[in-house]
Amino acid sequence: MPTLLEERPTATTEGAIAPFPELLESPSFPFRFCFNTSTVRKHKLPLPDLCRLAAAAGYDAIEPWMEDLERFVAAGGSLSDLRGELLDIGLTVESAIGFFDWINDDDEKREAGLVQARHDMTLLARLGGRRIAAPPFGVHTPGSPKIELLPSAERYRTLCVLGEELGVVPMVEVWGFSANLNRLGEAALIAVESGHPDASILCDVYHLYKGGSPIDGLTLLSGNRLPVFHVNDYPDIAPEQIKDADRVYPGDGVAPLRRILRNLDYSGFRGFLSLELFNESYYQEDPLSVAKTGLEKLKRVVEDAL
C-alpha cells in the first residue's frame, strides 16, 4: 500500500473517483491552471485586460473578483460580449470571489446576503462563470458569534438551490483567519449535511495552514467536490502571525506543497489550481511578468510532486 508520500493512484486507476465531466486533463499535467486576479489587484486593471493577461501568461482559466465585474459593468462594459472574447481566446471563468452573508444567524442579514448572492451570480453567469466562493463573510471577524454547523448546512443548501437556478455553483470556502469556518472539517460537514448534489468546497494552501487544518484530511474528500483549489506558498511564520500579504510564489516558501498536491491527486482531483497571492512586492512589478512567473513556479511544483 502506498503511503501519503509515496506513489499515488491516478485518475485512470481502476476504482478511482471520477472527475467532473467538464474537467478534462491538460495534455501535460493532471491539473489545470487558473489565475486569481488578486495576484495583480493593486494595478486595478480593467476586466478585459485581466482576461487577456491570464491568456497571454498561459493559464487555462481566470478567477476574477466580483469587484472586477462591477467596475467593468459600471464603465459600460458588456459581460456577454466579453464572454464571446473569452471563448475566442480559449479562457474559461472557473470561479469568482464574492462576499455575501449567507451563513448569519440574523435572518435580516442573511436575507440581504442572499439578495447580494443573486446579484453576484447573475453577473457572473453573463460572463460564463461556473462557480463562486462562499466564505463565512459577515461572521468572520473577531468577536463574531459562533455559528452552529447543522443550521449552516441548511443555509448552504438554500444557497446551492439559488445557484442551481442561476447556473452558478457556490463553494463553501475555508477561511483560516475567520471566527467561523476556519477549518476544512467544518466546511466538509456543511457540504455533506447540505445534501445538495452541487455541494463543493474551496480550499487554499495558506488558509489550511492559518486555520490549523491537517492537510491529510484532503484524502478523505472526493476530488470532484474540490473543483478549484487556491495555491500559494508561505514563509516560516507561525500561523498566529502570518498574514495574507506574506504569501509567496509556489515553491518559494515552506508549505508542504508536494504532499498537498499528492493528496489532491489521490482524491481524484482533476480541477483547477488557482494562483492566489496578495504580496505587496509583487504588486510593484509588471503584471504580466508576475502572472508568468507564478504559472512557471506552479507548474514546476506540480512536476516535482507528481
Describe this structure in words.
The chain has 306 residues and is of the alpha/beta class. It contains 10 helices and 8 strands. It has helices spanning 47-57, 66-74, 79-89, 107-127, 149-166, 184-194, 205-211, 257-267, 280-283, 287-305, and strands at residues 32-36, 61-63, 92-93, 131-134, 169-173, 200-204, 228-231, 272-275. Helix 5 crosses helix 6 (184-194) and helix 8 packs across helix 10. The longest helix has 21 residues, at 107-127. The two termini are 17 Å apart. The model is unreliable at 1-27 (pLDDT under 50).
Q: What's the quick description here?
A:
This protein has helices at residues 47-57, 66-74, 79-89, 107-127, 149-166, 184-194, 205-211, 257-267, 280-283, 287-305; strands spanning 32-36, 61-63, 92-93, 131-134, 169-173, 200-204, 228-231, 272-275. The protein has 306 residues and is of the alpha/beta class. It is globular, with a radius of gyration of 18 Å.
